Amino acid sequence: RVRPLVDMFVAFVIAIGGLLLVGVDRDCAAGDARELPNIVVIYGDDIGYGDFGCYGGTGVDTANIDALADGGMRFTSAYCTAATCTPSRYSLLTGQYAFRNQAAKILPGNAPLIIDTDRPNLVGFLRSAGYRTGLVGKWHLGLGHADQPLDWNGKIAPGPAEVGFDESFNMAATADRVPSVYIRDGRVVDLDPSDPIGVNYQSKIGNEPTGRSHPELLKVQADDQHSCTIVNGVSRIGYMTGGKAARFKDEDMADTYLNEAIGFVRRNKDQPFFLYYAPNENHVPRVIHPRFAGSSGLGPRGDALMVFDWCVGRFVETLRSEGLEQNTLIILSSDNGPVLFDGYWDGAINRSGDHQAAGPWRGGKYSRWEGGTRMPLITYWPGTITPGVSDALISQVDLFRSIAAMIKTPFPDDAEMDGQDVSAALLGHTDQGREFVIQEALTQLAVRQGDWKYLPPGSITERAGIDQWKSITVDEPGWLFNLADDPGEKDNVAADHPDKVAQLRRIIADVAPE
Ligand code: NG6
Ligand code: CA
């Protein structure tokens, strides 16, 4: 008669022990929503490999980011998928190379959504896995349907919500493109219905001054493409009318996004959350809040980096004060390489001093050279990630699959398969990342494998200083560089290594069949 009671007691002890184990061991937590780590992606804009102090940047004090690198993993061979914004962001969220989607090119502010909402993506995946998902900052992946005009004065959909974000506070595209307003959960913030918004990228609408007609009204002079409607003393790409009360002030944008990011964390701290925090810095126009203006000595571009660093510091401090730091993985990176002049005469070229925004690498935004896509990448998770520096080869297209592996939730069978599981490298357990990385600039591809970098034949267009572009032709059989001997990609050694050229060319042909 005593036996069942003993059995029950033993079972009870085992059950309690099991529960305790689950409580302390994150590895046992699969499927238990309460044990999932929070995940925050902090995604800078146009920030280059060499911009932060921890990557050798001089002239800008990035103490907060340097502290993340000191306490986490800092990667030296991490790549965004493309040298411009839209394709990189597309790949990060979908796990698909952007060149597979014709629409994944730099989008105007009134472009339709380019993410297929019927396919799995990182955000929807995390939501299904039990996460509360939030977007704060730059979107630039399109809004609305392709076959019907978008009404900016009603519900703006499909967009972030249909991609999987429970909460969103974002601008439509870039700060230099209209409409210059914030959108919260699919509706323009502070919109006065009696002053409806109109947007046009083909021809002028309304009778407001433009950069072309009224350059004397501008805070910063702009090139022709950036000389349409003036909002907040800055002429933009594209025309807009109405929405006066809703228009943003560039000077306040960083604080606005930071406060939204902090608000998201505080609201959702009692459940696992995923936050995609995408500040505007270092994209143009670089219109700096007075308390940071002049803080770097490098002009507005350096000042914008100071702003970014300060925001990162405040954000991490919030995680710390909320007691979330030990249970939050932060992934900090950028969407494409640096650019000094990008439409506005803000002094970035003249005032860059010794600061090498792309670090030791050639080129920057828009280019297939290393500077276009080799990005700063820091992963930070105190207590879980042991601090270090890693040269593991990583592409941002890997994040979806790697995050799925980290939270031990099966990667959907029907998800895009361009990404690989490099979670062990991201957590600092190994220096082994992917075998090769594909780089894209303006739809043209390149490949890096080990020390080798190969650019297939074709022409390259790149920004060549103020208001200029230059075209370079890569001739047959393409250009090969040995990055160990020649990090600046100056010395084409294709003729000496025909086998290497053929092998790398084959990688591109396999990944992207003509
Ligand atoms: C380019 C703009 C540039 C910037 C870029 C998008 C011109 C000449 N250049 O077309 O200023 O807005 O698009 O940047 O208009 S990105 O980081 O969002 O890709
Ligand atoms: Ca960008």
Number of strands: 21
Average predicted confidence as pLDDT: 94
Identify the bound ligands: 2-acetamido-2-deoxy-6-O-sulfo-beta-D-galactopyranose, calcium ion
- What is the helix content? 10-25%
**Hey, roughly how much beta strand do the residues contain?**
15-25%
What can be said about the biggest beta sheet?
11 strands, mixed
Class per helix and strand makeup: alpha/beta
Which stretches are low in confidence, meaning pLDDT under 50 for 5 or more residues running?
A: 17-34
- For the termini, the CA-CA separation is 77 Å
Protein name: Arylsulfatase
Enzyme class: hydrolase
Keywords: Hydrolase
Domain Sulfatase N-terminal: 37-405
Plain-language structure description:
The chain is of the alpha/beta class and 514 residues long. The chain is built from eleven helices and 21 strands. It has helices at residues 3-24, 63-71, 85-94, 122-128, 160-163, 250-268, 300-321, 370-373, 399-406, 423-426, 498-511, and strands at residues 38-44, 73-79, 132-138, 167-171, 182-184, 187-188, 198-200, 230-231, 234-235, 239-241, 273-278, 328-334, 374-380, 388-390, 394-395, 437-441, 444-449, 452-455, 458-463, 469-474, 479-482. Helix 6 (250-268) runs parallel beside helix 7 (300-321). Bound molecules: 2-acetamido-2-deoxy-6-O-sulfo-beta-D-galactopyranose and calcium ion. Calcium ion binds next to loops. Residues 37-405 form the Sulfatase N-terminal domain. Keywords: Hydrolase.
Describe the structure concisely for a colleague:
By secondary structure, the chain is of the alpha/beta class. 24% of the residues lie in helices and 19% in strands. A hairpin with a 2-residue loop joins strand 17 (444-449) and strand 18 (452-455).
